[in-house]
Amino acid sequence: MLDLKGIYKTFNPGSITEKKALQGIDLHLEDGDFVTIIGGNGAGKSTLLNAIAGVWPIDEGSIHLAGLDVTAVPEHKRAALLGRVFQDPMTGTAANMQIEENLALAARRGKKRGLGWEVTKAERAKYHDMLVSLDLGLEDRLSAKVGLLSGGQRQALTLMMATMVKPKLLLLDEHTAALDPKTAAKVLEITDKVINENKLTALMITHNMSDAIKHGNRLIMMNEGKIVYDVSGEEKKNLTVEDLMKKFSEVGGHFSDRAILG
Amino acid sequence: MLDISTLLNAFPGYIAQGAIWGIMALGLYISYRLLEFSDLTVDGSFATGAAVTVMLIIMGWPAWAAMIVAVIAGMLAGLVTGLLHTMLGIAPILAGILTQIALYSINLHILGNKPNQAVSVDKYDLILSLRTVNEAIVIALIFAAALIAAFYWFFGTEAGSAIRATGCNQAMAKAQGININFCKVFALALSNGIVALSGGLLAQYQGFSDVAIGRGAIVIGLASIIIGEVLAEAFFGKHMTFWLCLSSAVIGGILYYIIMGVVLWLKLPTNDMKLFTAIIVAIFLAVPYLKKNFKNSFFRLKLAEKKAAKEAGKNA
Ligand SMILES: Nc1ncnc2c1ncn2[C@@H]1O[C@H](COP(=O)(O)OP(=O)(O)OP(=O)(O)O)[C@@H](O)[C@H]1O
Ligand SMILES: [Mg+2]
């Protein structure tokens, strides 16, 4: 499904702010893998997801997705294969546009955008039903501007937008970090449901170790631009937060308090 | 002695000119409001539209055909600004200024290396003229209405929505597979095509074009958009539909010219016109900001503090 080989990325090379963000990443994902990613601040987690999404070109290595070499494919074309939810609830939606317009934009991900109507009647009915299943009370506010929604509602909406055209790979970058605990739990629950129902392959960054253990079938830990720990199957299921903490201090990493609590 | 009848006599002229500039404001609306791109190309592309229209009519082209070429010329100008920004990474304002400066020379060439060219309604078949001002008002408003209808349709389509998404949130647009560079270039071309159209209309209306016809166009266009918005919000509140936003830009253009007409009628020195323009635009730009601030807690607390300090001073 996803094949990363020897990925390197250095920001601002040659200057005093030079940062080697990715230093030789090799990663292979099977169809249906749901991988959680943990690691300290600046470990390169977001950089890894951005490299896969094509936000900027990588320095070295190759990225294969669903059998295609996408290493040189620009971000907007790669988007046809990817669903993305970001840490900041503002990033994933267009605030000045209506809920139904945002959904309609997402429904056309990877398709040609022509001179047909953006939101048809049939679509509106479909969106209504989809929002009912989210259970956030958004189904009756289809024509409300997204800017009026709460952070949690926006993240749930972004998640729906990321998956309504089934992505080959779903990228979640700390998508619950900006939410209060109760809302975060709700959005995580929706995430699990969407991934299971659609049998999606997913990468999810989280700062919460128990979430990282609880969700998905595989866990990787990053430090200084490298993957330093990779577990799956039974071994992952039996992990405890203490195990992860120990593993982490072994590689010389440092976790914030936020990661331990939670 | 101020004579109200001179003002009233001049009124139709102000409405006609205001409606023509309102069309320009519709073009600017695409870059300024939908794309959120401060495009200074318009001063140049307005004059390009005027120059191309006048010269082709003088060469014997029918006015409508001349205006189609003018629109294409304006679109090319927008294309250049778009490419300077997306391909060469030049900041929006600078990209626009560069095209605008370049157009100054190009517009002089189009005008046959003369600062101005006349196109008299006696000699040529023009679409509108200040000689028949009431008719000119109707024609300008028909153009504006047709454009509003076209906008309403286009920005409701898949392609038009992609442009709106690009203006609203680039990261989101890219994540949804939208080619934001293409959207920007396309929207800038469209915007400047409409600006050139209004330039062509103004040149015919006044019967000549000069190389400075577009000077300050960006400010007049912005003034029209902002005046329209402030007033429409006062009447309709926050629930502004798209067609209302567009119509208010045209109405804003007309109001702008009426305000300017009153300033002239008050016999304020014409040399200071640009100064008045800047002041009026600054006032209307400030209104939404100040209104928001008024509801803001910092502002209210500060007021309350001042009041309390005053009271304390009195009591002491
Ligand atoms: N666009 C960029 N330009 C310059 N430096 C960057 C850029 N993006 C990331 N970096 C740097 O690369 C390093 C890795 O950043 P990254 O965002 O991937 O960390 P992270 O693991 O996601 O951390 P966090 O948990 O804080 O989100 C950091 O030192 C960061 O400052
Ligand atoms: Mg991050």
Question: Can you offer a commentary on this structure?
Answer:
The complex is a heterodimer of chains A (262) and B (316). Chain A is α/β, with parallel strands linked by helices and 262 residues long. Chain A has one domain (2-261): P-loop containing nucleotide triphosphate hydrolases (Rossmann fold). In chain A, 35% of the residues lie in helices and 23% in strands. Chain A has helices at residues 45-53, 75-78, 99-107, 121-134, 151-164, 181-198, 209-214, 233-237, 241-250, 257-260, and strands at residues 2-11, 19-29, 34-39, 60-65, 68-69, 82-85, 169-173, 202-205, 218-223, 226-232. In chain A, the strands form two sheets. Chain A has a six-stranded mixed beta sheet with strand order 6-7-8-3-9-10, with helices on both faces. Chain A has a four-stranded antiparallel beta sheet with strand order 2-1-4-5, with helices on one face. Chain A is globular and about 55 Å long. The relative contact order of chain A is 0.18. Chain B has 316 residues and is mostly helical. Chain B has a domain at 4-214. Chain B has twelve helices and two strands; from the N terminus they run ααααβααααβαααα. A two-stranded antiparallel sheet of chain B has the order 1-2. In chain B, helix 2 (42-58) crosses helix 8 and helix 3 packs antiparallel against helix 4. Chain B is globular and about 85 Å long. Chain B starts with a helix and ends with a helix. The chains are: A alpha/beta (262), B mainly alpha (316). At the A-B interface, helix 2 and helix 3 of A face helix 6 and helix 7 of B. Magnesium ion binds next to helix 1 of chain A.
